[in-house]
Amino acid sequence: MKELLHKGESMSVQQQKHVAYGLTDALLNIPQAPIISNRAPTVNDKAEIGTLWVDTPANAVYALTSIVDNAATWTTSPASGSGVFTAVTVNPGDVAVTAGNVDIAAGNLNLTTGNAVIGGNLTVAGISTFTGGFVITDTAPIVLTSTSNTAGAVTLEANGGVLETILIESLQGTGNASVDLVSAVGGVTLSGGKASINAVNLVASNGAGGITASAGTAGIALTAANGPIALASGTGAILIGTDAVAHAISIGNNTGATSVSIQAGTAGAGAINIGTSANAVPIVIGNLTGASGIIEHVGAGNYVLDGVAGSTYNFGASTVGGTLTFGGSAQTGNLIIGPSTAAMNAAFANSNGAKAINIGNGISGNTIAIGNGANSSAQAVNIASGAAAAISIVSILAGNATAGVQTLNLASGTSVAGKVVHIADGASVNTVTLGSTATTSTTTIQAGSGGINLNAGGELSAQVGTDTAASPTATATVNTLIGKATFTGFTTAAGASQVFVVTNGAITATSVLLCSVTNQGTNDAQMTINRIQVSAGSFSVTLKNNGAAALNGNVIISFWSPA
What is the pLDDT of residues 535-544, one digit of tens each? Predict the structure, then answer.
């Protein structure tokens, strides 16, 4: 038997074929002895095919499998048991480990074609690269664990082209967590790089399926950087904060030109309901800050603000210095307040504080009716009828008219039972003025057979017309129905008569005339009326001195023509 060959570090091997003489055959092929070396073989180390090479420092064994183009191929492979290799290449064929482990402390495991079937564990300290498909199948749980304390410690990555996808699929699981993404102490982020609404999709593919998002006290945040957030449910309902727990629900914010729009279907089909549940809760819309405003619009569907039998409605209860406006500036319809057919009270500006109440103050010819219905039961209309504690002024038609005739009708209609009109007849010191003294103003006081009662306690005065004539003129002009004519300088002797004439355009031939005469002076002159003659435009009075002396003072004739 030949000894093992020992080769040095740097020399190349050119081992020749060995033969021997046999008993039956002339020459016999003698197997080559293993080459023992301190290095691994190279392509320049040539020997007989099948020669073994032992690299003692590396504890590695090589076999010469071919020499092609003067280049040797040495292949290392364990015959059985375990071994440590710098590289293992199987091409073609499979790597099958039915028991035990495959540990790669350094380097890579490359499978170009074929399969790797491992019955035990596979531990790879480096990187595993698979150029074909990669399928892990086992009846036991499969766990991918990385102890790297870095971002991307476990990465599933596809890098094949624009049609690539990564699919994590549970084929038979029916539980709510058949696919479960869990971060034990951190968060879970789904990030999509596509520049569209479909960058991240959560889809329940079953037609009866749904999506549930649950969170703790930190809540759930949906945030879009300057993009819309759309909640759409087809014919289903969209419910926000409908769980049976008291909490606050906020929509919108207080920033800039933020707007909130609530829409509801088509005409007659949709509805917007706010606070319509059967719970006694307040509903607050708007705020009192700055120029905050509320605009409510309504079409032909009308505007209804309604409550229950005991509801109270406050409009502008906190307003100071503002304006409350009901009705439009060009409205041609009706403005109706308090149309109830039941007994009720309507109060306007009824609290303390000085107020100005304007009704129908426009300039377009208004018709203002107060208590104007055909009442079927007793009614009372009171204007400033309360117990006054200060000066009260009630003015009716007190303005200065620049055109047209102003007419004040007070109890001017007919009444089956008659009317009772009281004007300042209370038991206080009143000053009552009726009529005007301007130019041809007329004041008429009428009465039927009941007469006119002037109850003045003996104090009755009238504004009279006057004129004065000096002797020898015995004619004065007074064009009023009540008047006084004064004649001066007359010296009518005792027993003599004097005729005085009063020209008066208000006197007719049929006028009723009441006259009296007064004479002044120190003499015992007694001027008495002997005769009164009335004609159209004047009347004459004949006076006789029935005294003992001549007249030496003025003669005053007073008259009143009541008809």
Answer: 999 999 999 9
CA distance 46 to 33: 13
The partner residues of 468 in beta bridges, in order of sequence, read 486
β-sheet with 60-68: strand ranges across: 5-7, 35-37, 52-55, 60-68, 71-76
Across 249-352, the runs of DSSP E, i.e. the strands, are none
Flag whether pLDDT at 135 surpasses 80. Answer: no
Question: How many Cα atoms sit within 13 Å of 493 on the Cβ side?
Answer: 2
Whole-angstrom distance, CA of residue 421 vs CA of residue 298: 48
Question: Under DSSP, is residue 45 helix (H, G, I), strand (E, B) or coil?
Answer: coil
- The answer to whether 104 and 123 have CB atoms below 8 angstroms apart is yes
Lowest model confidence (mean pLDDT) among 18-22, 258-262, 343-347, 423-427: 18-22
| 486 neighbors 554 (Cβ within 8 angstroms) | yes
59 CB-side CA count, 13 A: 5
* In the chain, domain spans: 1-86, 88-137, 465-560
Q: Phi first, then psi: what are they for 83, rounded to 5°?
A: -160, 165
Res 244: pLDDT: 78
Rg of the Cα trace of the chain?
64
